[in-house]
Amino acid sequence: MYSIFRNLALILISAKFFALLARKCRAPQVVGEIIAGLVIGPCLLNLVQPSDSIAIFAEIGVVLLMFTTGLGTNLQELMRAGPIATLIACVGVAVPLAGGTLLYSLFYGFSALGSPEFYRALFIGTIMTATSVSITVATLQELGKLKSFLGTTIVSAAVIDDVIGIVVLTCVLGASGGADTSLVEVLMDTILFFAAAIVIGLIIHKAMLWLDHRNPHTQRITIVSLAFCFAMAYIAEQYFGIADITGAYIAGIVLCSLEDASYIERRVDISSYTLFSPVFFASIGLKTDISGLTPTILLFSACFVIVALLTKIIGCGLAAKLCRFNWGDSLKVGVGMMTRGEVALIVAQKGLGAGVVDSVYFTAVILLIVVSSIVTPLALKGLFAKG
């Protein structure tokens, strides 16, 4: 039990050291934190192994990160970005889905529609559809671009992408006989969640306005806000099957127009920045284990990563261009949407449990998460530096 304290100490010290090293090299600090996980994890020194305790800290970290993202959102910019973000998310799901299906078919042969091998290929594409906004959010925050129209568009598109990804996952699992939930149920749950979020949000918003006016700049408003964040994350995941980070993001959106929104954001950032976020980013590196790689799996994994990254850049970038972004900003949107994280792991785990994919493909998923988590911040920093 007490080993968690040893592990946390190693994670925090190494994450801070490599984050500072990354900053010295003019790279985003999140890259250093991910590399710290690679160094102290099973991939290299094997000082810390993934565990349930670390997973819980990491999950709290990503929930808090999305909550503060919602708190810092400009509502007017969000409303303006809504239709654009939806189009980007739709194209950003369709292109990787087709690319992943084609990649598997090229490696293992084209199969007849409806056959088990066809659904296996389709599921590889489904894994590619998932977008993890956490790394991009941290990078945009560090670059001071999170509250811009471009940053709001990327974050909104990634959240919508998660919802569409859940629908696609259910379709594929249902068609292959590996799911008990129908597509209609998923669509209904999604609609009900957003309807419930609007009702709960209006009630909580009015209550928080009263509390904010009565007790401005006090700990109690931060505590109540955190409770609301965790409640929305729980409700989203437990009752509607929506990712907990989506619930946390919406909780932040509900509170973002409060006078004390920036105060709450700063207070939550203290815990997030010093403990939970470093554990989350380091945990990505901790999950990487290359001991079971074979030449064939390694080749497939490398192609899997390349196709997954390119299809997101092409799909989301072209959709952004259709929405009248210039080529430079379209490329930033595509790059910002190419990170993968916990959602891709969840999708892969669902496929494994349903017998649609084998465990060997987890190597490809982990490799994609690590590569995209490192490449995306570096690429975004370079693109924003160019203007």
TrEMBL record:
Keyword field: Antiport, Ion transport, Membrane, Sodium, Sodium transport, Transmembrane, Transmembrane helix, Transport
Places the protein is found: Membrane
Keyword Transferase: no
Topology of the protein relative to the lipid bilayer: Multi-pass membrane protein
Residue ranges of every copy of the Cation/H+ exchanger transmembrane domain listed in the record: 14-385
Matches recorded under Pfam families: Na_H_Exchanger
Entries under InterPro entries matching the protein: Cation/H_exchanger_TM, Na+/solute_symporter_sf
Gene3D superfamilies in UniProt: 1.20.1530.20
Transmembrane segments: 6-23, 30-48, 54-72, 84-106, 118-140, 152-179, 191-211, 218-236, 298-319, 360-380
Protein family per UniProt: Belongs to the monovalent cation:proton antiporter 2 (CPA2) transporter (TC 2.A.37) family.
PANTHER family: NAPA-TYPE SODIUM/HYDROGEN ANTIPORTER, SODIUM ION_PROTON EXCHANGER (EUROFUNG)
Protein name (Swiss-Prot/TrEMBL): Cation:proton antiporter
